[in-house]
Write a structure and sequence with these properties.
- This protein is an all-beta fold.
- The chain has no helices and eleven strands.
- Strands 2, 4, 5, 6, 9, 10 and 11 form a seven-stranded mixed beta sheet that branches. It has a four-stranded antiparallel beta sheet with strand order 1-3-8-7, with no helix packed on it.
- Strand 7 and strand 8 form a beta hairpin.
- The protein starts with a strand and ends with a strand.
Length: about 120
């Protein structure tokens, strides 16, 4: 099982970035996918989530209207489009997969990709 996060970088306030997560080793189309973020010394916070089919999405209040989560089940990828970035969006961003298979519930994490918003 592997989740590979990419797309992070340094961007100025008001700018945009698109994060991507490539999944392998499990049935991606059956998993609910989310993005989380973490600042050093603080807990990992949920940012956005999307249902297995892609028909339902949800966002943390702090990013609603600025971030968009999407997925392509045919490509086993989930993206996070981040617009109007603010310095407080600076964090390590992680892709997360949750689901159930025959042996029980599972949860997988990507390795994280750093997003830094600074002038």
């Amino acid at each position: 099982v592997q989740l590979v996060d990419s797309g992070g970088g340094l961007v100025q306030p008001g700018g945009s970035l698109r994060l991507s997560c490539a999944a392998s080793g499990f049935t991606f189309s059956s998993a609910a996918m989310s993005w989380y973020r973490q600042v050093p010394g603080k807990r990992r916070d949920w940012v956005a989530g999307i249902s297995s089919s892609g028909s339902s999405t949800d966002y943390a209040d702090s990013v609603k209207g600025r971030f968009t989560i999407s997925r392509e089940n045919a490509k086993n990828t989930v993206d996070l489009q981040m617009n109007d970035l603010k310095p407080q969006d600076t964090a390590l961003y992680y892709c997360n997969a949750k689901g159930i298979h025959r042996s029980g519930a599972y949860e997988y994490w990507g390795q994280g990709t750093q997003v830094t918003v600074s002038a």
